[in-house]
Design brief:
Blueprint (H helix, E strand, L loop, with lengths): L2 H13 L5 E9 L3 E8 L5 E7 L7 H15 L9 E6 L5 E6 L3 E3 H8 L4 H20 L2 E2 L8 E4 L10 E3 L6 E2 L2 H7 L19 H4 L6 H17 L9 H10 L5 H4 L6 H10 L11 H14 L83 H25 L1
Antiparallel strand pairs: 1-2, 2-3, 3-5, 4-5, 6-8, 7-10, 8-9
Amino acid sequence: MTVEQRQIEALTKELEPTSRWRPLRALARGGMGEVIVVRHADLGTEAVMKLLRPELTEVPELSQRLRVEARLLIGLSHENLVRVTDFGWTSTQRPFLVTELLHGESLGQRLQKDRVLTPDVALEIIRQVLDGLVAVHAAGIVHRDIKPDNLFLCAEREGQHGVRVKILDFGVAKVLTAAAKGRAGTFAPTATGMLLGTPSYLSPEQAKGERVDVRADLYSVGCLLYRIVAGAPPFVRARPVDVLAAHILDAPKPLSEACVQPIPEALSALVDRALRKVPGERFQTAEEMRAAIAEVARGGISRASAHTAARNTTASEPTIAARSAWRSPAIAPSAPAPSHELDAETTEVTPPPTDENEPTAWLPPRTPRAPELARPAVVGMPRRWLVVGVVLAFALGAVLAIVAWRAG
């Protein structure tokens, strides 16, 4: 009997007393949970089950986050959102979430193979993402973790350009309205000062641990569009803390200069607006950004700028250790393609990675507020080290405060 067969047998015994779902095969296992294909014992329908790892069931917040995700999504019905069908607990008190079984691949997997997508396909993907976010935001929810691995390209090939997009993983979503808080229950992840998200796609206000609203998701969509068309996120740095500092302080290279393919000037301008440091200068709603996407698409991709930047050949950067907290539902493991990006299925990747798939829930201290544009460097000290120093100082202060509180 293989290791997987033993795991399936053990999970079957764990589920039988409390659930009608029966495990069929494993899809993925990450730092926080595992994803399994299951079949309903009575109905015969197949679905995907996401479970918390056994050793993490003693962490109440992690269990509650899975429950919040289920309660938020069960009330949403949209063609661009993954559909939740069940939530429950195993006989060992492990929470599980059941979603529809999707066939296809994540956008992250597609970009590992193709590196970049054409502007017309990119615009269609972003349009559907924004369609889904219109429904999410209308329900009083901010996703907070829009990235390639949380977007699924369904194999049915519906829609324009043969693309049907589903938004996945609301595990770090924030609720904004009283109605949404009511659906989430007594526990709702709304606290400020907590940094949640993935560094490469994080808004400046998230990087600073400040209060966020729907405009944080629109910044992430801008980063996503940049990545799809240019082949890399707006900020590629050796360490996650450097990526956070870049989101706060640095201006990204214009998309027209970063691209390895011709693009419309209007598309570069759209991305520039989406990536503004100050939320009030970005698109204010998903509807507004969707209308701008439609305007660029109507302008015709054939009228792209003749300017095409030279292909990026940056020197190798140090390997970054990373672990995926959750693997997206219904994504079968596949052999990693050569890429400069982090592979979410491994804990360490070479050659040079970006920070795209760093863990999506972590708690560094808050960094000080920063203006929209880069601040002048302090005399004798590079700006990056100043940011790192402030972060370390806050971390040390937090540790000392905890020690003093426990001692008292």
